[in-house]
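Hi R.,

Here's the chain you asked about this morning:
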Amino acid sequence: MAEAKARKALKRARRIVVKVGSSTLTRDGAVRNRKFGDLARQISGLAEEDRQVVLVSSGAIAIGASKLDWKEPRHSIPEMQAAAAVGQIGLVGVYEKRFADHGRQIGQVLLTRIGLEDRKRYLNARHTLHELLEMGVIPVVNENDTIATEEIRFGDNDNLAANVVGLVDADAFIILTDVDGLFKEPPSDANPRPEQFDVIEKITPEVERAAQGSGTAFGRGGMITKLEAATTASHSGAATVLCNGSTPDIITRVLAGEPLGTVFLPAERMTRRKHWVAFTTRVHGQLVLDDGASRAIQGRGRSLLPAGVVGYSGDFRRGDAVACIDAAGNEIARGLTAYGADEVERIKGLATREIERVLGYSNGDELIHRDDLVILAR
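And the predicted structure, written out as tokens:
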């Protein structure tokens, strides 16, 4: 019943994010021109039906590595940045030609986590993507690997694409990979075609254990990152389909409601701001809460007051995202702090009326206001 409902919702989806990985687009770094052509044909066909598609595409590093005649993948950040700089030109050039065959224009959009962490830049990216879609242009999104570092990159295009789902208010998220879906156990010689999950309502420990896939030589994402991406997209209200990019007309067929791939059902939809806090911003530190504060923010939706904080870690500043940890060490919430680490050291455990006396000023009674606080576990 749940799967049938999800498949019917996919048929109604009007705005879709499609993520395609390096393993689908390239083989040993060489461009698979037919795959690019198939993608352009299917997405252009959806556009003819007044459906809007954002394409999040990997492949720049793999194509660049081939152009640079690398026989083995490189692992240093500067080497991958160089490959991305060379390969991104080729990647977009191929897409431009293939979409032009169908009378469609594309727009290149390069993003980084540090760019989207800034709320103003996040909104600018959102407005740009919305404008491109309204103009009938197909946005082709990739991480800006030429400037990204370990500290600022999303790390894989699965999670980048999941954040784009929230950016554009997509109804559906399709992840094209080199497997038919999420298997209940890893393929082996004894069982090369294990049973597949048809629908996943919630990511449980059983589902996490099943996700033992690994990335390809020139890719960064494995099956675990796809679960993370599905979780992120689900809280934007979008259904996610993990499916095989080599299946003929896979995008068209999934959006026609065919039972292909593994469907991850949408979860409770967060507001755009809270989704940004939970999944886009980086955590800069931790606040350790007492039991009373943990119960108050989880069960009653309260703000976090200094009195409920028994410890902290990290070098965070006002406005940074921090994790809220309960006494058992579980992250139960995440939010934007109104006070920096040095200030928390002085006011933790105190009543709100003591803040101004101790600091000589007050930035508000709440350490994290409930409007800036996202509950992650109940």
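The CA atoms of residues 73 and 217 lie 6 Å apart.

Let me know if you need anything else.
M.
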